[in-house]
Design brief:
about 230 residues, 10 helices
Length: about 230
């Protein structure tokens, strides 16, 4: 019985640890660093602020852990998209749109609302109040997608999906910046629909000039409402 009670206590501790991070993540996205307080998190979970201090110590440490986890997951998702051997570059661009839309839907209805939806984009706007470790984690996202996109472009060339005169470095540069600034662009534009149009315009005006399309490929597929 004593061993079972110890296991239950560990599970509860782990669940609370993860629950605090989940609430903190959602508040950081919605309200930013200054709008995320131990008091607000504690109220959401019906716990005390002492409990949060016990798990994380300080707000800076909590934010650091939340951002690191978020960046690690986002980097993994993007690498899976860009290193997918079965998809063309045009399809990968559309898969990024679909991935971003899943994130967007968690904080917005339809495509025309403009609530923040990316922790990376939101925290970059408040980099001056973040720890060095947290800012380093945000920077690592750019490094991760840079490596993945450069490799994706090179693989597309090697597979004969790109024309011989394709400026590979320029194409990769545009893709990297398009992906890296997605959330900020959507926020500035006021809705997700504008971001989707921007991705489609890139595929139509830039990507289609250099890619060799295969039969049945539709590089401008719209993300439909479920």
């Amino acid at each position: 019985m004593a061993k079972k009670a110890q296991v239950t206590a560990v599970v509860k501790k782990t669940n609370m640890y993860d629950s605090i991070k989940e609430v903190a993540k959602n508040r950081l996205i919605a309200y930013g660093y200054h709008g995320t307080t131990f008091g607000a998190i504690a109220e959401s979970l019906d716990i005390t602020t002492t409990n949060i201090h016990y798990h994380f110590g300080s707000k800076s440490k909590l934010v650091e852990e939340v951002v690191k986890d978020y960046v690690a997951n986002a980097s993994t998702q993007h690498r899976a998209i860009w290193l997918d051997e079965t998809a063309s570059l045009a399809e990968k661009v559309q898969n990024v749109v679909k991935y971003n839309y899943k994130l967007y839907k968690k904080f917005n209805r339809g495509k025309n609302s403009k609530n923040p939806w990316s922790l990376i984009g939101r925290m970059r706007l408040e980099s001056d109040v973040l720890s060095d470790e947290t800012n380093a984690a945000l920077t690592s996202f750019t490094q991760s997608i840079t490596e993945a996109i450069v490799l994706a472009v090179e693989r597309a060339r090697d597979k004969g999906q790109l024309k011989a005169d394709t400026p590979l470095e320029d194409l990769a540069f545009l893709l990297i910046n398009l992906v890296d600034s997605s959330s900020v662009f959507a926020q500035d534009a006021g809705n997700f629909e504008r971001l989707e149009q921007f991705f489609n315009a890139f595929s139509h005006v830039v990507l289609s000039v250099y890619t060799i399309e295969t039969a049945g490929e539709n590089p401008h597929q719209e993300v439909l409402e479920p």
